[in-house]
Design brief:
Its cofactor is Zn(2+). GO terms for molecular function: metalloendopeptidase activity; RNA endonuclease activity; zinc ion binding. The structure is a single chain. About 50% of the residues lie in helices and about 20% in strands. By secondary structure, the protein is of the alpha/beta class. Strands 1-2-4-3 form a 4-stranded mixed sheet, with helices on both faces. Strand 1, helix 1 and strand 2 form a beta-alpha-beta unit. Helix 3 crosses helix 4.
């Protein structure tokens, strides 16, 4: 189940596509019986969260907050929260020549992959992120 919290108005149609695509990706990844919350907001909120949790005073595109300790074999019913800045997503979409909708889908997939315990400290670890980010656009 995908819960959406909207603090900044997304483009028409984004909510439904995001719910549908993220739920389908979760099913493919074997966590379709779990829930996540996606918060669509702006740079100011992401900057505040990044400063509070990572000590970095800058906005970012996506942050993930798991509701369990990654690596724990027990996945709780609610995996965690994915916070996405629509401001940063819009700038990135324009720079890459993709739609805002596709950019947000990729950020949601990226956040979900983090909630499932993955990180990207090395090039090899990025492979999974790229795979789920590409896959969600087709769902």
């Amino acid at each position: 189940m995908v819960d959406l919290v909207v603090n900044k108005r997304p483009p028409k149609g984004l909510r439904a596509r995001l719910r549908r695509a993220l739920a389908a990706l979760m099913e493919e990844l074997g966590v379709g019986d779990k829930a996540v919350t996606v918060v669509l907001t702006g740079d100011r909120t992401l900057r505040r969260l990044k400063r509070a949790w990572w000590g970095e005073d800058e906005a970012t595109d996506v942050l993930s907050f798991p509701h369990y300790e990654p690596g724990d074999p027990f996945f709780p019913p609610h995996l965690g929260d994915i916070w996405i800045s629509l401001d940063t997503a819009a700038r990135q979409a324009e720079a890459r020549g993709v739609s805002l909708e596709d950019e947000v889908l990729e950020l949601a997939a990226h956040g979900l992959w983090h909630l499932l315990g993955h990180d990207h400290q090395s090039e090899e670890e990025w492979v999974g992120f790229h795979r789920v980010q590409e896959r969600i656009r087709t769902l």
